User: What shape does this take?
Amino acid sequence: MSKFHLESKEARLIILQRIELATSFLKKIRKLFGRYIFSNYISKYFLDTRSIEKKYYELMKSELELLENHIVFENKRILSIGGGLGGLEILIARKFDCSFSFIEKNYISKKVKYGWDQNNKEAYNDLKLLENFLINNNMNKEKFKIFDYDKDILPDEKFDIIISLYSLDYHYDFDIYSKYLKKICHSETILVFDTIKADLYKKIFNRVQIIKKDDQTVHKSKRIVCNGFI
Ligand SMILES: C[S@@+](CC[C@H](N)C(=O)[O-])C[C@H]1O[C@@H](n2cnc3c(N)ncnc32)[C@H](O)[C@@H]1O
Assistant: This one.
């Protein structure tokens, strides 16, 4: 199977979701002009879509390789919270027979801050572009549903795996989802997300395993795999 097919509008979005995909030149320009002007005007002319497409594919491939060492994916119902453009889920779908529900936000905040946000006003997605990217990359339309966190009734079914990379607890309080998560988890449901408070989750879940440490980043977060709400 080929790599990803990424359109230029999607490339402009993905560098907001994954800052590591931007070159240092782009990061400098963004600092100079501010994020709003950068995202809406400057990035149109300075982005190398093909190079971002390749880097995004490689990044998502390495994310999947890590998760595969800890999670069994075959035949699972997967909930993706804040999945961005869904590159990871596309790679899971190419390898395993799974179904997907995406919960995301449908707007791009003017001032994107990378870090924890108590009010959960930070978002950078466009649900039409998400759908477009999934379909263009051969995700079967029957296999996924997209939910707008601010407008839709969230899916009311039990999921086997919940994935939220650099979103839940990383950008906004876990509590905004905790009641909902309890409702949609069964005893074996696996949750994977990034946090700076790994120890706190040992009081919330029966099992918490740290599978990655981001020591080089400002946030110094850890990726944890959890299951069994206490
Ligand atoms: C840093 S990006 C990470 C995207 C993706 N998980 C990845 O690893 O590439 C965080 C994502 O969380 C989304 N987000 C923010 N608040 C959310 C919420 N309450 N529910 C679901 N997604 C949310 C943003 O729109 C953004 O796409």
Notes: Residues 73-229 form a domain with the Rossmann fold fold (CATH 3.40.50.150). Helices lie at 8-17, 24-33, 35-46, 49-68, 87-95, 127-136, 175-184. The mean pLDDT is 91. The chain is about 35% helix and 20% strand.
